[in-house]
Amino acid sequence: MNNSTADVGRAFGTFSLDSRLPGATQRGFAAFRREWEAQLGDRFRMPAFSPASTGDFRVKSRGAKARDVAVINVHGVSAVHAAGYSHCVEDLVRMHVVRQGTLTLGEIRDRDEDTVPAGQFLLRPFKLAPRYDTARHTTVDFFFLPSATLMPLLKKGFINGPADTAEMRLLLAHTDMLHTTVADLGPAGVHAARNVLVELVKAVALRQFDDTEPLLMPALTQAARDLADSRLTDADLSGAVLARELNVSVRTLQRAFAATGEPAAAYIRRRRLEEACLALTASSRPPALSELAAHWQFADSSHFIRAFKKHYGQTPTDYTRSIREAEPA
Questions:
Q1: Is 161 among the domain residues?
Q2: Residue 63 included in any domain
Q3: Among residues 80, 82, 81, 62, which one has the least CA distance to residue 72?
Q4: Which of 205, 219, 242, 302 could form a Cys-Cys staple with 174, CB 3.0–4.6 A?
Q5: Are residues 230 and 146 in the same domain?
Q6: Residue 264: is it exposed, middle or buried by C-beta count within 10 angstroms (0-12/13-18/19+)?
Q7: pLDDT band for position 109 (50/70/90)?
Q8: How many independent structural domains does the chain possess?
Q9: pTM for the predicted model, two decimal places
């Protein structure tokens, strides 16, 4: 899928599918299995899902492979049970990041289980592919990672903790970029993306990352953007706030954004204007300009109008009128 050459095809794989629509569950599991096997290969084997899971397979999923690492994100409307398999040729450590819901997992031949609730992660090796159960409406990132690099960190046999740390924000931002960009990378880019992912997993385990490492700057920028997008209505949102939340200096964050050509403050203002623009055209009765200005943290309607005109080339009123006139009668 999206593989341009045989060599790059072995280095990366990517898929995305959604079987949550009515009537798509049976076809959805078949497509999921087909894409997993084709894109992730034999090294990252798919576990054996229970008949109940395959018969009601309502999930949105995406997967990405970069050489010897892989990440699969699954959001399940239905509950999922996977029994693992009885032998394991993979030399892997697994990390599970639960964004929503609950994940329970354990060794296939062991009665001991670990439960990972929403907002937590678990990093540990498995001698065999783990059996696992997810509750309904659970979202999990499954990481397959090289054990040679990560086993020295697992002195207790596992590491767990919160999934809202600065290090985890960077890791998940990089993971999202990997899903969307890996198919467009050349061999050197795939290798670099793989190395960054491993370094960020190590950073999560150690609760610190090297903020002087240039390879981590794209992940830092994306994590800052994601954080800003979630707080656009906050009055105190700024580059300094983002830097504090991501546990880096303001100067480090400025350097990261400098590579994009758009400073953090400019990004925040642009996104606020974009959201205000959507609100203007989302209904036949848009909010008053004073309401939009207050909601998106502009000093007053005059400041909002000037910023809007500078960005879109029209005042909000003229923009709304032009959109309405362009709509089919």
A1: yes
A2: yes
A3: 62
A4: 219
A5: no
A6: buried
A7: low
A8: 3
A9: 0.86
Residues 86, 131 contacting (CB under 8 angstroms): no
Q: Are 270 and 240 members of one domain?
A: no
Positive or negative, the Cα torsion across 88, 92, 93, 98? negative
* 102-106 β-sheet, strand order: 80-82, 131-134, 102-106, 114-117
Per-residue pLDDT reduced to its tens digit, 148-162: 889 999 988 899 999
In a domain, 1, yes or no: no
Question: Is 109 found in the same domain as 223?
Answer: no
Across the strands, what pairs with 132?
82, 105
78 and 175 part of one domain = yes
Residue with tokens 């899902």: 49
Is there a single domain that holds both residue 116 and residue 11? yes
Q: Same structural domain for residues 95 and 14?
A: yes
Q: Are residues 170 and 286 in the same domain?
A: no
Q: Are residues 233 and 140 in the same domain?
A: no
d(CA 296, CA 304): 9
Whether 4 has a pLDDT exceeding 50, the answer reads no
Q: Which domain holds residue 247?
A: 214-261
The residues that bridge with 103 in the sheet, in sequence order, are 116, 134
Q: State residue 7's pLDDT score.
A: 36
Cβ-based burial of 186 (10 A; exposed 0-12, middle 13-18, buried ≥19)? middle
207 sits in the region (left: phi over 0; alpha: psi -120 to 50; else beta) called left
